[in-house]
Design a protein that fits this description.
The protein has 483 residues and is an alpha+beta fold. Helices cover 40% and strands 20% of the residues. It has 15 helices and 16 strands.
Length: 483
């Protein structure tokens, strides 16, 4: 497929973490609510009601735009996007089409060690629609509508077609989620619908210059599935192009069951939505002073934090990238370093042990772990003092993660301190030499590798608690100087 190149653009909807909806006072926390309980006449489109804009949603939208390097406009306006579907009770969606809140942004991603800038065309505010529930396996088969999500505030971010591969699409989405989480405007949870992505893909034949029609892929609820869906679609389009078949411009959905995209409908054109200015809302005017004030409130963003971690803590760029991908993890790491004064050791243990156990346990946030930052100092002190070996420390850390007890408490309760009794170690080695004189002869004839047998006997007798360096020194002494 070397002659074919994919051209990908993304449309991402990010749910803003406001307490109430965009145009009414209903709760916007709708994920676990029973169907049709967070609704009112405004968000269900009853006659005679008027929308009132949520000021917090505007601030969050501006905050996101600034963090994504957009130019925020002092003047923007709401419009009506008209379409008829059961989850849209008004028959139209309030959005921003002609005059969006922000334009010309960008995000930089790291692709195999190379920086790539993805341009962002626009960011605008809009209300969410309801949710269709297709109950195929229920006693009452059919489709139902839950209007809880109607009116929840969203920002839509549209990229330029700068993404060249499914992998880049995944990396971009991961970076975008990291940023909106850092600034606290959204949870970014794809599995809860707080971040949703529609991907547009076309394929260019580099030899002929031919280009397929653009296909939209919807209903993708994880980063990995975005990548898989685009990989599948790229292969499907290339196969059709090689057969000389026309690629219809359509919307396709990702089937989890079949692991492939399936045709949903022909792709709508923008003219089909009959956009016109929203008559019930005045233009949105934000002063330069207000925009600047919001800009000043932005926290240190992932790229800057990563750069600082490398410079300030002397850790590799890869480590810094992992540690700063999540703001809570970055804050946790810095707290550990402030206590231990050991940035590299802290990085190693967090990345190889803590994140491993979090992944195995299905824990998403470091806020939910039982390992307190001060426990790292306790653990490092135990290692540095020679009371436990590094191998024992790893087992201790696992027990700390599971129980929340301090390393010192676990070492004391389990009797895990390193065995330093040289007389005991010599007794074990002496016994092993008597039981296996052949191994002694082999060592003394030049086969130094059999030393491992005697070290193993000591470690077995002490249940792994003897210091391997001390054991090796005594083993060598006894084999070379003993009887």
């Amino acid at each position: 497929m070397g002659r074919y190149r994919s051209v990908i653009g993304l449309e991402i909807h990010v749910q803003l973490s406001t307490k109430t909806k965009l145009f009414c006072s209903c709760s916007a926390d709708v994920f676990d609510s029973p169907p049709n309980t967070n609704i009112c006449p405004v968000c269900t489109g009853q006659p005679g009601v008027l929308p009132v804009l949520n000021e917090q949603a505007v601030e969050y939208a501006v905050k996101a735009a600034l963090a994504l390097n957009f130019e925020v406009h002092e003047y923007s306006r709401f419009d009506r996007k008209n379409y008829f579907y059961p989850d849209l009770p008004k028959g139209y969606q309030i959005t921003q089409y002609f005059y969006p809140l922000a334009t010309n942004g960008w995000v930089e991603i790291d692709v195999d060690g190379t920086k790539k800038r993805i341009r962002l065309r626009r960011l605008h505010m809009e209300e969410d629609a309801g949710k269709m529930i297709h109950a195929e396996d229920s006693l009452e088969k059919g489709s139902f509508v839950d209007y809880n999500r109607s009116g929840v505030p969203l920002i839509e971010i549209v990229t330029e077609p700068d993404i060249s591969s499914p992998k880049e699409a995944r990396l971009f989405l991961e970076k975008l989620r990291s940023i909106v989480r850092y600034i606290g405007v959204s949870s970014g949870d794809m599995e809860k619908g707080a971040l949703r992505c529609d991907a547009n893909i076309s394929v260019v034949d580099e030899e002929t210059g031919g280009r397929s029609n653009r296909v939209e892929v919807k209903n993708i609820n994880s980063f990995k599935l975005v990548e898989k869906a685009l990989e599948y679609e790229f292969g499907r389009i290339v196969e059709a192009m090689e057969k000389g078949e026309e690629i219809p411009q359509e919307t396709r959905g990702w089937s989890m069951r079949d692991k492939k995209t399936i045709s949903m409908r022909s792709k709508e054109e923008e003219s089909d939505y009959r956009y016109f200015p929203e008559p019930d809302l005045p233009p949105l005017v934000i002063s330069k002073e207000r925009i600047e004030k919001i800009k000043e409130s932005l926290p240190e963003l992932p790229d800057k934090k990563k750069e600082r971690f490398v410079k300030e803590y002397g850790i590799p760029e890869y480590d810094a990238g992992v540690l700063t991908a999540d703001r809570d993890l970055a804050d946790y790491y810095e707290e550990v370093v402030s206590i231990t004064k050991k940035p590299k050791e802290a990085s190693n243990w967090i990345m190889t042990q803590l994140l491993r156990y979090m992944n195995e346990s299905g824990i998403d946030s470091v806020k939910d772990v039982k390992v307190k930052p001060e426990y790292f100092k306790d653990l490092f002190d135990l290692i540095d003092s020679g009371k436990i070996t590094t191998n024992i420390a790893k087992d201790v850390f696992r027990q700390v993660f599971e129980t929340g007890k301090s390393p010192s408490q676990i070492v004391k309760e389990k009797g895990l301190e390193v065995v330093t009794d040289e007389n005991l170690i010599r007794q074990v080695i002496e016994k092993a030499m008597k039981e296996n004189p052949k191994a002694v002869e082999q060592y003394r004839s030049g086969k130094k590798g059999v030393m491992g047998y005697f070290i193993g006997q000591v470690m077995r007798a002490t249940k792994g608690k003897a210091d391997p360096k001390v054991v090796q020194k005594i083993v060598v002494d006894m084999l070379e100087n003993g009887e």
